[in-house]
Amino acid sequence: MILDITLSGLINGSVYALLAIGFSLIFGVARIVNIAHTAFYMLAAYCIYYGTHKLGLNPALCMLAAIIPVILIGLLSYRLFINPIREHEAAVLIATIALAMAMQEIMLLIFTGDFLGVPHLIEGYRMIFGVKIAYQQLLTVAVALLVLAAVWALLLKTKVGLAIRSTAQDREVANLMGMNESRVAMVTMGVSVGLAAFTGAVIAPLAIVNPFMWMHPLIMMMAVVVLGGMGSIKGSFIGAYILGFAESLVVFLIPMGAYLKGSVALSIMILVLLVRPEGLFGIAFEEER
Amino acid sequence: MKRSKFVFGLLLMAGLLMATGIPANAADVIKVGVIGPMNFMQGKGHWDGATLAAEEINAKGGLQVGKKKMKIELVKADSNEFISMTDATNAMERLMTQDKVNFVVGGFRSEAVLAMQDIAMDYKKIFLGCGAAHPEICARVGKDYNRYKYFFRVTPINSRYLVKVCLINLATVNGMLKKALGIEKAKVAIVAEKAMWIDPMIKAIEANVPKMGMELVGVWRPSDKATDVTAELTAVQRADAQIIFTIFSASVGITFARQAGELKVPAAFVGINVEAQKDGFWAATQGKGNYAVSMSTFVRGVAYNDNTEPFIEKYISRFGELPTYTAVTYDAIKFTLGEAIEESGTIDAEKLIPVIAKAERVGTGAPKSKFDKNHDLVFGPGYATGITFQWQDGKMKGWWPNGWEGVTYKGMVPYKIPPWMIQKYKK
Lengths: 289, 427
Description:
The structure holds 2 protein chains of 2 kinds.
Chain A: H1 2-30, H2 37-54, H3 59-82, H4 89-111, E1 125-128, E2 131-134, H5 135-157, H6 159-169, H7 171-176, H8 181-203, H9 215-228, H10 233-253, H11 261-275
Antiparallel strand pairs in A: 1-2
Helix pairs in contact in A: 1-5, 1-8, 1-9, 1-10, 2-3, 2-4, 2-8, 3-8, 5-6, 6-8, 9-10, 9-11, 10-11
Chain B: H1 2-20, E1 29-36, H2 41-59, E2 63-65, E3 68-78, H3 85-97, E4 103-106, H4 110-122, E5 126-130, H5 135-143, H6 145-148, E6 151-155, H7 159-181, E7 187-192, H8 199-211, E8 215-220, H9 230-238, E9 243-248, H10 252-262, E10 268-273, H11 281-284, E11 293-296, H12 308-319, H13 329-344, H14 349-358, E12 387-392, E13 395-400, E14 402-404, E15 407-408, H15 419-425
Parallel strand pairs in B: 1-3, 1-4, 4-5, 5-6, 7-8, 7-9, 9-10
Antiparallel strand pairs in B: 2-3, 11-12, 12-13, 14-15
Helix pairs in contact in B: 2-13, 3-4, 7-8, 13-14
């Protein structure tokens, strides 16, 4: 059973990690709580559905192609709805909720509320220590690790990364040093939405495509980010696996209460916050930066 | 001056009359409200079934009500009941107060129907339920007849009968496993979403499985919107379950069928999976939903009587998909209501109720339909039974009833055990 729980937790955690990294990035840099993050993931899933089922395109091609329009929509949303009110965090929060709801309603109008599916990139399963695991799930684990490595490389090895980090540390000083803080925020938004779209592309084959598919991951993603510490990518990554394992434990130990797995994971988050209000790797006060 | 005021007054009155849009022949129209979650397949079924019925009636000039012909006018009401109960009650209220409908058909979620039922009863309007299965909806009629007599359940059979059918199906599959694979005491796992209407069903199944000579190895209750049930499937396989009894009404049904197919879980399926009732299930599961089982009213190639197949064909040619059971709004309008109106020559609810309650109708969704004293649909041989079907190589195939109590519908095929199960257990 320990093996079952470990493998299952690893898969759950990878899905949450993929979602949380992009969200954490845009919050860490621009202090934007982008509630619409998982709605972009939903958009990507619909793009793939449209490409594969309506246009008959290759699934892998659709998955890559879906990222571009979603990034464009993300950047446009940033320019039109977020940038003008960026200084008011509560307003941004409400605006992104509205944005997500608008995207949901548009998808509902176009595709109705029917549950849809997109094809797996790799069909079949593999037995690992006596546990059957679908190749698509193995791919998710691998991609989560790759994305983390890519984000790490972007932040630490490139000039853009340097700009993003310096803006995250102190926006005003970065501005005084001649950095276009607004542009950096926009680039970060592009990267963040791109990650959401990429996540959508990888996870969509495991999910049920429907206009409400952004809600449950949003709650879990917020829990992961809060548990790991707002804005900490490392924290999000570790938080994702903690909640992933917690969910698996519930399913295996309390089968009749399997539906409680989300609630148990959220309770763990609350318990951690009671002991450490800033989250596992968060910063307690702005002055500590 | 006076004359110009008079002309102005006349023009104003004419304008107001035009603006209110009162048709000259409003009295010659029977307004039927169709209520359901219109952005979802259940609501689409409600509307499409009703549309076909209204078109057929109107093509003949309408219903003969006494000495005059009255056409059917449908009023669409989106209850949005999956998302908001308030939307559902508001939609029903609007049908009563603003649209002033004569009758209502539809409803899906039991919780929503119970609330909408009260509103229709307040206005003393006949409400023909076409979707919710909870016994309480019709039990209310028995408890307080004067208030709830306006409600009739046209479809589906109530959930007590659904359990009965499921257990009959379980016994059938158990017998097949014994015969084909030599499994003497099959191990049964229940995987059911967390929903209120399922709780009493699980108790009944838990109580009956040992009595039927099988072993219950566990009950798993994922969330109705779970997007991953691999952990549950791994646990079910660890328990060596040979029969998986599923009860799903929401999206988790697709997740489960797809992942069970992907992982080739060596077990036979019985039970309910509402999402499997629609044509889109095969695509939604990416073809992994093979051998999934559920119950429905309509299955291609299966006929209860001479009305069924022409209706299915017409529905498919018009809307491009198989009707789900909520499309029985067709029967509700054309047969239950339409025939009763013509027989009684009135649209007065008080006079229609005894006619609807006593009649036996031959519609499309059962060999014959009639109501019991609680205005609930009668279940049994010769009446509504539903069809248990299985997805076999991309097609929905009916496999029960096939000889049960002497009932076999035209077009039934045998149940198939998944080949990977045969491979594992064949001696």
